[in-house]
Design brief:
By secondary structure, the chain is of the alpha/beta class. It has 14 helices and 11 strands.
């Protein structure tokens, strides 16, 4: 037992050292972004655990700016795809172009070949384009013609969607939404934060984001995140939460049974474990505690719980369901 305690202490010191750059990176991104600590933290969770992030919020909440600033601070290759109803899969992944001089087809790679891919307003495009992007997210590779190309490492898709306008949008199918590790809902800043935003934007001085972290540092940090210690009791806690979304009646949550159409898939359990390890890493800790799971449960599960018509009629959201599950499932 003492040996294990020594191991965890040593691991804790190692993680503290490896995660030292997090504060530097957060500070750099915060130069351009005022008051969106939650959003920056969720983007970092995706970056460190290799999971894609879906940001939902009304226009003007600096979603695009946050993603661009993070890419600059990490010194990564960044590309932005503005999703529109007339976008084609080739506009995302690339296509074959015929060269008349050499009389052969050449591959023209699309904007998907970057470390950070911002899929702006992903729900504005038809299913064909969405599936091309989501295949790349899942397989980490793209096939153009007969050749398969691996994507950049690290490769991270950060998608945004506007919850207000539903005209001319194509809602993401559940199976595709499941590919996103986290779905973060971004809210308005408070008055003091908005005052700072006005001053920053009206000021003639331009905020310059400098690269403070290399891609190599990120790859090393990702490996360190996997080493973060997770006790069996924490694993059981994750399983209890996810299984309560599938069989609420087995966890004394009978009233949720008619509200849930389907619960979280095994991807939910994997995402909870990985995101919790990344969350502990961001907090400079070498082990996961129950509070880490509680902090990220809503973001991991909100898009993975299907609601029945009854839930919609009663104005019950997936967030309400997650909250009730966390209140009932026993904390280790």
């Amino acid at each position: 037992m003492e040996g294990q305690a020594t191991d965890i202490r040593a691991l804790n010191e190692k993680i503290k050292e490896k995660s030292a750059f997090i504060d530097l990176l957060t500070g750099e991104v915060s130069k351009a972004i005022v008051g969106q600590e939650y959003m920056i933290e969720r983007l970092l969770l995706g970056l460190l655990s290799g999971g894609h992030v879906l940001l939902e919020g009304v226009p003007g909440l600096a979603k695009t700016l946050a993603i661009k600033s993070l890419a600059t601070a990490v010194d990564a290759k960044f590309s932005r795809i503005q999703f529109t109803p007339d976008l084609l899969p080739a506009d995302v992944v690339g296509t074959m172009i015929y060269n008349q001089k050499t009389m052969e087809f050449l591959v023209k790679k699309g904007p998907i070949f970057a470390n950070f891919v911002l899929a702006d307003e992903i729900n504005r495009s038809p299913a064909k384009v969405q599936s091309a992007l989501l295949e790349a997210m899942q397989e980490r590779q793209v096939t153009i013609g007969e050749t398969t190309f691996p994507l950049e490492r690290p490769f991270l898709v950060l998608a945004t969607q506007n919850p207000l306008e539903q005209e001319g949008t194509y809602p993401l199918p559940e199976a595709q939404v499941d590919r996103f590790m986290l779905k973060a809902v971004i809210t308005y800043p408070n008055q003091e934060q908005e005052r700072q935003i006005i001053r920053q934007q009206v000021n003639p001085g331009k905020v310059e984001i400098r690269p403070v972290v290399s891609l190599n540092d990120i790859q090393e940090a990702r490996m360190a995140v996997r080493e973060v210690y997770m006790d069996e009791k924490i694993e059981q806690y994750i399983l209890d939460i996810v299984f309560a979304t599938r069989h609420p009646e087995q966890h004394k949550l009978d009233k949720l049974k008619p509200l849930i159409n389907y619960g979280g898939s095994p991807r939910a359990s994997i995402a909870l474990a990985l995101a919790a390890k990344a969350y502990a890493f961001i907090k400079h800790r070498g082990y996961v505690i129950p509070e880490d799971i509680r902090a990220i449960s809503e973001d991991v599960l909100r898009h993975r719980i299907g609601l029945t018509f009854e839930a919609e009629a009663e104005n019950v959201t997936s967030e309400d369901i997650v909250e009730q599950i966390l209140n009932v499932v026993e904390v280790p």
